[in-house]
């Protein structure tokens, strides 16, 4: 994923999307067609740290998601890295952003933008770049590699704590608690989870009643010839449903990401197309998107109902998730930002 490149998509290119009947097609509701293309934006793109910030109680010994125990003795120089930027969001939101010494390419929120990048190849760590920053603890998941680099960093004596790699709304609290535990601020982690869960619940509750628009998430990288549609478990489905929509890929039986075909997209019959802003740009904007096979033959294409959202926020599943759901719901239901 520029950011938002999804590591998930790298394993999805096998297989073909086949057309299948949609038993709910006749009952499908339609979405407003008057608001046309829109960019869903957050009113505040930065993270909000806990106040007051916690003081780490160290040392702590924790077991990584890969089963390896690590003892963290110093949180003065934290390096949070993964393909989504979610780990950095959590560290900054815990109030420890001042201790962070580097970032991945997916971490783009303003408070972290000045930090040096240690993933020049997207999801591959540069051992040299990491060692030059002298981190006292590295927080990552298995979307970052290669594994030999992580082994090299561990061999250099740096605690490397891996968290579970699942990217979903339900996984956010577990990620927060695991990272807070590794940094010796468990109570702060509980405070942050309470805040995040409240924001997500409020955003879900804010979705209007009535007919739910049918939304297809398209992962586009025109420069690389990658065109995928999301389904159940892709992550995009959770965001669409939380915002008050029906995931069109899931509705026709898709799982994760599948190659986009005109037959499959027409069968999915989305009222709205959801894309990342970088992906939309890569195909030449809305006009270029409408030229892709099958797009113009969908209700969304005919109405130019396209929603794009910044690559750095849409599928991050970090501490701003409640704000992301709210912004997506506003765009989906043709409301102005609140």
Automatic annotation (TrEMBL):
InterPro entries: ABC_Transporter_SBP, ABC_transptr_periplasmic_BD. SUPFAM superfamilies: Helical backbone' metal receptor. This is Iron complex transport system substrate-binding protein. Residues 1-27 form the signal peptide. Keywords: Signal. Residues 79-336 form the Fe/B12 periplasmic-binding domain. PANTHER family: HEMIN-BINDING PERIPLASMIC PROTEIN HMUT (PTHR30535:SF4), VITAMIN B12-BINDING PROTEIN (PTHR30535). The keyword Transferase does not apply. Belongs to the bacterial solute-binding protein 8 family.
């Amino acid at each position: 994923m520029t950011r938002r490149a999804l590591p998930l998509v790298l394993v999805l290119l096998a297989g073909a999307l086949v057309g299948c009947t949609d038993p709910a097609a006749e009952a499908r509701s339609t979405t407003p067609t008057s608001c046309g293309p829109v960019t869903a934006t957050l009113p505040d793109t930065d993270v909000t740290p806990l106040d007051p910030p916690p003081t780490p109680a160290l040392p702590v010994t924790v077991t990584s998601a890969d089963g390896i125990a690590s003892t963290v003795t110093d949180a003065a120089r934290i390096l949070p890295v993964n393909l989504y930027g979610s780990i950095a969001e959590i560290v900054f939101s815990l109030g420890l952003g001042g201790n962070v010494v580097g970032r991945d390419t997916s971490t783009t929120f303003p408070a972290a933008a000045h930090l040096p990048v240690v993933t020049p190849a997207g999801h591959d760590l540069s051992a040299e770049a990491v060692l030059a920053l002298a981190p006292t603890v590295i927080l990552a998941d298995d979307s970052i590699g290669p594994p030999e680099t992580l082994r090299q960093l561990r061999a250099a004596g740096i605690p490397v704590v891996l968290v579970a790699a699942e990217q979903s709304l339900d996984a956010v609290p577990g990620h927060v608690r695991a990272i807070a535990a590794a940094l010796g601020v468990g109570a702060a982690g509980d405070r942050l989870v309470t805040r995040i869960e409240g924001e997500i619940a409020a955003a879900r509750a804010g979705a209007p009643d009535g007919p739910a628009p049918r939304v297809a998430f398209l992962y586009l990288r025109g420069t690389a010839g990658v065109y995928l549609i999301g389904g159940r478990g892709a992550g995009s489905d959770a965001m669409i449903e939380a915002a008050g929509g029906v995931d069109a890929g899931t509705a026709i039986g898709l799982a994760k990401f599948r190659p986009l075909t005109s037959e499959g997209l027409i069968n999915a019959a989305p009222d709205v197309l959801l894309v990342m802003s970088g992906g939309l740009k890569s195909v030449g904007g809305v006009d270029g998107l409408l030229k892709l096979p099958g797009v113009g033959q969908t209700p969304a294409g005919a109405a130019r109902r396209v929603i794009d959202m910044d690559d750095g926020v849409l599928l991050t599943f970090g501490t701003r998730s409640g704000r992301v759901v709210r912004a997506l719901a506003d765009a989906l239901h043709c409301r102005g930002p609140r």
